[in-house]
Design brief:
EC number: 3.2.1.21
Strand content: 5-15%
Oligomer: single chain
Structural class: alpha/beta
Number of strands: 15
Keywords: Carbohydrate metabolism, Cellulose degradation, Glycosidase, Hydrolase, Polysaccharide degradation
Pfam families: Glyco_hydro_1
Protein name: Beta-glucosidase
Number of helices: 16
Family: Belongs to the glycosyl hydrolase 1 family.
Length: about 475
């Protein structure tokens, strides 16, 4: 008898059927879509401040209006229902719920999320809430931000407020989205908010993000029902050597520690990697890690969220080069503390509008590694997608065959990983809507739905219709 796996292996162009119960969704982030930056008690986040600083964001764009999701949520939920999504991953805006990062919640802010969740549930769409997608209240940054322990403590208090308000209807929670970006792009290279460039502050921020995660999981568990699920989303880097030389292999080890194991070590194994501590010893003695911190961080999780877009290629160097080819934005300051003798290289092949290489094998390899390292931890792809130079043609249609090809290739990689034993249970396309793409402003379009920014008009792209059929059938058509 020929199994489905054998058919897949022997017929790479055949249609691929995903497991029954596989969760299909899409995702957004609060600052990128909501707008209403000063309504109903919301105060500035670090991204409001950063975007309003001249020279930080392309064209001086801000998230003040974004895609106006705050006022158009019903229209957007109707689009999700039209696409047949089983789940919607969104983030809560901390300064909308707790404007100063301290004290009681603002009910008008919570009411927006209550209404959003109710709308989703009415359409049979599972709400997946992320507590933190980078919009730290500016008052907490003014008090020191993530490099300070107090921010982790405030984060746990905020998590408790969110759980108390929404926990009766939201059953799936994520603490942090891509803490690597928060720590190392925000406090190391400065290409993300708050725009600081201090390698020690970046390492301190990484630790306190870890601590905040652990404290938040405990706060959620204390308040949620037994059937609720807690997770974290990491942008695990698939790091590859430029050559087979031992020096390049060691460069991979060094970047893997800074990109990945700085989070998976304490969160999933209860310890920081010894090589990470050694690599950064000239910068810090890590005395900011206090007794008991690792126990607080190492909390049981129900699954791990994985964000993937492109692989990372590195080599050893003499330290005279730059870090401008790591795919994370140009800066005179490195987001890689203690890795001055590592060079980054553009992976081969076609690229997206972000300049990122299109390489689904990186996702396959990453999932296989995570399955081997953490065999009892289910995985969800919480972000995967691509930016292209989309436009509406004279008939009002948006055709984006390159995005369809990108998603097709990456879904095929996910299916292959499942066949080969990885416990992958869902996929969230990034992003539902074109939106504010951080330092790129509105110049990069990741959405399955095109947004005409002057009018706010939504136009589902060809990729949205294609994805809707995959969601409906659970089958990836042949290439």
């Amino acid at each position: 008898m020929v199994t489905a796996a054998q058919q897949t292996a022997s017929s790479p162009d055949a249609a691929l059927t995903f497991p029954k119960g596989f969760l299909w969704g899409s995702a957004t982030a609060s600052y990128q879509v909501e707008g209403a930056a000063a309504e109903d008690g919301r105060t500035p986040s670090i991204w409001d401040t950063y975007a309003r600083t001249p020279g930080r964001v392309r064209n001086g764009d801000t998230g003040d209006t974004a895609t106006d999701h705050y006022h158009r949520r019903r229209e957007d939920v109707a689009l999700m229902a039209e696409l047949g999504l089983g789940a919607y991953r969104f983030s809560l805006a901390w300064p909308r719920i707790q404007p100063t990062g301290r004290g009681p919640a603002v009910q008008k802010g919570l009411d927006f999320y209550r209404r959003l969740v109710d709308d989703l549930l009415d359409k049979g769409i599972q709400p997946v809430a992320t507590l933190y997608h980078w919009d730290l209240p500016q008052e907490l940054e003014d008090a020191g931000g993530w490099p300070e322990r107090a921010t982790a403590e405030r984060f746990a208090e905020y998590a408790a407020l969110a759980a108390d308000a929404l926990g009766d209807r939201v059953k799936t929670w994520t603490t942090l989205n891509e803490p690597w970006c928060s720590a190392f792009l925000g406090y190391g290279s400065g290409v993300h908010a708050p725009g600081r460039t201090d390698p020690v502050a970046a390492l301190r921020a990484a630790h306190h993000l870890n601590l905040g995660h652990g404290l938040a999981v405990q706060a959620l568990r204390d308040r949620l029902s037994a059937d609720a699920r807690c997770s974290v989303t990491l942008n695990i880097h698939q790091v590859r050597p430029l050559t087979a030389d031992d020096a390049d292999t060691d460069a991979v080890r060094r970047i893997d520690a800074l990109a990945n194991r700085v989070f998976t070590g304490p969160m999933l194994q209860g310890a920081y990697p010894e090589d990470l501590l050694k690599d950064t010893t000239e910068l810090t003695d890590w005395s900011f890690v206090r007794d008991g911190d690792l126990k607080q961080i190492h909390q049981p999780l129900d699954f791990l969220g994985v964000n993937y877009y492109t692989p990372t290629v590195v080599s050893a160097t003499d330290g005279s080069g730059t870090h401008t080819s790591d795919g994370h934005g140009r800066s005179a300051h490195s987001p890689w503390p203690g890795a001055d003798k590592v060079a980054f290289h553009q992976p081969p092949g076609e690229t997206t509008a972000m300049g990122w290489a299109v390489d689904p094998t990186g996702l396959y390899d990453l999932l296989r590694r995570l399955a081997a390292d953490f065999p009892r931890l289910p995985l969800y792809i919480t972000e995967n997608g691509a930016a292209f130079d989309d436009y509406a043609d004279p008939s009002g249609q948006v055709n984006d065959p390159a995005r369809i090809a990108y998603v097709h290739g990456h879904l095929a990689a996910v299916h292959r990983a499942i066949v080969d034993g990885a416990d992958v249970r869902g996929y969230f396309l990034w992003s539902l809507l074109d939106n504010f793409e951080w330092a790129h402003g509105y110049s990069k379009r990741f959405g399955a739905v095109y947004v005409d920014y002057p009018t706010g008009t939504r136009i589902p792209k060809a990729s949205a219709r294609w994805y809707a059929e995959v969601v409906r059938s659970g089958v990836l058509p042949g290439a």
